[in-house]
Task: inverse folding
């Protein structure tokens, strides 16, 4: 998928604001792409989900870096600001018709299968792309170092996904993730090597 100038500009904005969030967003885009392909979706839908994965956290450019990278527990006020990053993301994307199709993916990427997410959507009411991005987002967050946590190893991340199947995550997508995991690892080893 080639990156349009508007996308490159937003990714550059994200990179300048937080290299950690930028790298995470690239990882989520790659994982979301692999999952969408694993589902056998049409290429246009794969591209939309990949783009949604790349830009799912663009709203964090409106969250102060001091909050994003805080090693200590966030205060209630800081957490409320952080929780609004999907809303901020939709605001950033609004008005550009090229991004209309990914606005729901950005808006709902913190929804949970059991309905306990940010907006209270659950199950198949959550757009498929948002469910895919939620899974990719969580797995990358678990297995990457953050200011506020050490990374889990891949096995621990996989076990956490399994424990969240049917609760936090769409159980069908968790199984798909396990099925495509070897391909994801091969892709990543080729990029690193």
Result:
């Amino acid at each position: 998928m080639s990156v349009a100038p508007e996308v490159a500009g937003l990714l550059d904005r994200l990179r300048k604001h937080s290299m950690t969030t930028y790298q995470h967003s690239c990882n989520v885009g790659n994982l979301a792409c692999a999952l969408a392909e694993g589902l056998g979706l049409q290429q246009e839908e794969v591209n939309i989900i990949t783009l949604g994965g790349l830009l799912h956290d663009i709203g964090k450019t409106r969250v102060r870096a001091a909050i994003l990278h805080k090693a200590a527990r966030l205060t209630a006020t800081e957490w409320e600001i952080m929780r609004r990053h999907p809303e901020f993301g939709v605001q950033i994307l609004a008005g550009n018709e090229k991004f209309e199709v990914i606005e729901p993916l950005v808006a709902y990427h913190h929804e949970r299968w059991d309905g306990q997410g940010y907006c209270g959507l659950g199950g198949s009411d959550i757009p498929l792309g948002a469910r895919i991005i939620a899974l990719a987002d969580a797995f990358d967050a678990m297995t990457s170092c953050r200011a506020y946590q050490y990374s889990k190893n891949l096995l621990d991340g996989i076990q956490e996904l399994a424990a969240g199947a049917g609760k936090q995550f769409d159980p069908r997508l968790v199984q798909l993730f396990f099925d495509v995991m070897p391909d994801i690892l091969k892709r990543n080893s080729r990029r690193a090597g």
Observations:
- The CA atoms of residues 73 and 148 lie 8 Å apart.
